[in-house]
Specification:
Uridine Diphospho-n-acetylenolpyruvylglucosamine Reductase, domain 2, alpha+beta, Uridine Diphospho-n-acetylenolpyruvylglucosamine Reductase, domain 1, four-stranded mixed β-sheet, 31% helix
């Protein structure tokens, strides 16, 4: 944080007016990889108005900040963050269902959203049942599974801009494509989303969700800390060699370990923390895997996971790892 008037700024930010707060927040506690040093301050707004006020204040003071949900696809640096982490969590998790429309705030936990849709006899969100994290991040990344994306169900998205203003965007304006949306890189915070599903038999929807969960338990390393899929499924690579997990496995890299970070022996698109992994270990392993895959295929894998530097800069992890 800026050295001038630092005490006054910290006192203001930790007054509670912007939401719940934690000083010197251990970021490893807020990331699925269980990696990361302390952040100067972590704030969890409890309303859209608090988000607006906080973002305006941070912009006015020139304080670095990063916005997260559950931290499921985040790699925090071992040095932590010199600034503020804005966490859109359970205080921003209101949800309502009217007919085929679901209105949900950005902090809604995605598997809970999927279960609520099933109980309402709605289909379309089955593929999200096993995805950890919050709805805001899922919409931002057009996340999903089974080659589906949440953007298919979006009607509109409300965001808070980097200036602290509220803005409603249509599905068309979001420009959803595979694991991408026009929201990325804008600094906009997804605070509310309206989704449209279709009516269906509750038992059928529930059965499909249970099948997906059973498949995930069989195929994914759920018992060790990880961020989910590390590499994106690139269409060109997929056509030539298959999905990223297969590409990494066929390159002979299953089980490869640097420090306490390992390419999962169960699924090669996962990197697991065996206990004492560090951010540098993850970045080194990402770089090694990419280089070996490129040597074999001529393709560079790109990362789904985001790295957050100590100064608050966020980037795809392969960018931080280097060529």
């Amino acid at each position: 944080m800026p050295s001038t008037e630092q005490n006054d700024i910290m006192e203001d930010l930790s007054s509670g007016r912007y939401g719940k707060y934690t000083v010197n927040a251990p970021l490893a506690h807020y990331a699925y990889w269980k990696i990361g040093g302390p952040a100067d301050l972590l704030i969890e707004p409890q309303s859209i108005e608090q988000i607006q006020s906080l973002i305006r204040y941070l912009a006015q003071q020139g304080i670095p900040y990063v916005v997260i949900g559950d931290g499921c696809n985040m790699l925090f640096d071992d040095a932590g963050l010199r600034g503020v982490v804005v966490r859109i969590g359970r205080g921003m998790a209101e949800l309502s269902i009217q007919g085929e429309l679901i209105e949900a705030q950005g902090g809604v936990y995605v598997p809970w959203l999927a279960r609520k849709s099933a109980l309402a006899g709605l289909t379309g969100l089955e593929h999200t049942i096993g995805i950890p994290g919050t709805l805001g991040g899922l919409v931002l990344m057009n996340g999903g599974s089974l080659r589906k994306g949440i953007g298919d169900n979006v009607v509109e998205v409300e965001v808070v801009t980097p200036q602290g203003d509220r803005k409603v965007l249509s599905r068309e304006e979001c420009q959803f494509s595979y694991r991408h949306s026009a929201l990325q890189g804008t600094g906009n915070i997804v605070v509310r989303t309206v989704l449209k599903c279709e009516k269906a038999d509750k038992k059928t929807v529930r059965r499909e969700m249970l099948d997906i969960l059973r498949q995930r338990r069989r195929n994914f390393p759920l018992r060790l800390p990880n961020c989910g899929s590390v590499f994106l499924n690139d269409p060109d690579i997929y056509e030539a060699y298959g999905p990223p997990g297969k590409v990494v496995e066929d390159t002979g890299l299953k089980g490869l370990k640097i420090g306490d970070i390992q390419v999962s022996p169960l699924h090669a698109n996962f990197m697991v923390n065996l206990g004492n992994g560090r951010s540098r270990d993850v970045l080194n392993l990402i770089r090694t895997v990419r280089e070996r895959v490129f040597q074999r295929t001529g393709f560079w894998l790109t990362c789904e996971v985001r790295y957050i530097a100590p100064d608050g800069q966020m980037m795809q992890a392969h960018v931080a790892a280097g060529p």
